[in-house]
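### Sample
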Amino acid sequence: MDSTCDVAIVGEISLRTWRLHVSDGMAKRIALISFLSLIMLMSVLGNLLVMVAVCKDRQLRKIKTNYFIVSLAFADLLVSVLVMPFGAIELIHQNWIYGETFCLVRTSLDVLLTTASILHLCCIALDRYYAICCQPLVYRNKMTPLRVTLMIGGCWIIPTVISFLPIMQGWNSIGIRHLIEARTFSGNSTVCVFMVNKPYALTCSVVAFYIPLGLMVLAYQRIYVTAREHARQIGVLQRAGTASDSADHQRNHRMRTETKAAKTLCIIMGCFCLCWAPFFVTNVVDPFINYTVPEQLWAACLWLGYINSMLNPILYAFLNKSFRRAFLIILCCGHKRYRRPSVLGAGAPCTATQINGSTHVLKYSVLHNGNHIEQEKLSLQNDTESQESCF
């Protein structure tokens, strides 16, 4: 009898343990599904909102930077529609059921679209550098419609060259095919493995991340320094008492917008580095440590990069006044409360950043104190594009 009771007790304990294990696994599964679904949904809606806002808002369409933003939103939208769902399915089921060919296509799309997103961010940084740190005439000469088109084209052509061409030809797997096959068919499941050899890891990472990162750091550093220098010069003019009340008010406004612009750029740059640096550091290191990076770490780094596609429209909504108003107009079905001249008016400028205009004004104010108001008006008339910058 005692042995029978012991067996029953052990069986009951084992059953309870199994139920707890199943319940815990189900809870984690539901939490993971909810988290990934939220990322994909917010990414789709946010990027669609950005594209619709620029297409519907005449004032936003006037700004050259926003063409980069629309193309960026399109790339991020494709990431959330063509890349994230298949990655989420494989992560949840721990199995790839779509075949080897589609695995290569999905991997190529992943590299293409995420690289395109990063290159668009780099182009936006360069565009803002020319608009804010250079003279208006320099910006107009640099950012012609043809050059903007070529830059956007490069943001798509370069990723295509480093994604579909080498991956579909198998250049990334030269020398490590046996490792890829071993991981693809490990256990009772099949997974879509993307492993790269050392040459491809270095080349792809440098082109897709490290060069754009360097250019963005240099551009935003110069923008930040310029904004701080303008604020200092405005303070000097105020203490010297050389400005009239109207000019003083305008300079105070510019100082606030310049400071906000510098902070905005720092936030955008910080989010970019936080999201993508872990993946590309891991991508370079892994081939040199015999591919020993845990799969869980790989998945975490990859999805952290995907989150950047969700964050971009959020940053525009919360940190940019013109986009925020355009979003409210769309979400509130064109309610009159949000229809302000700064958004829809034909002649009202976007005042998110007016750094380049104040650079021109400051130079004339220091040299010709008596005529600073007239020179300021002339500067504002000749610098419409840079004044209407939304970064």
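The radius of gyration is 27 Å. This sample (5-hydroxytryptamine receptor 4) is used throughout the tutorial notebook.
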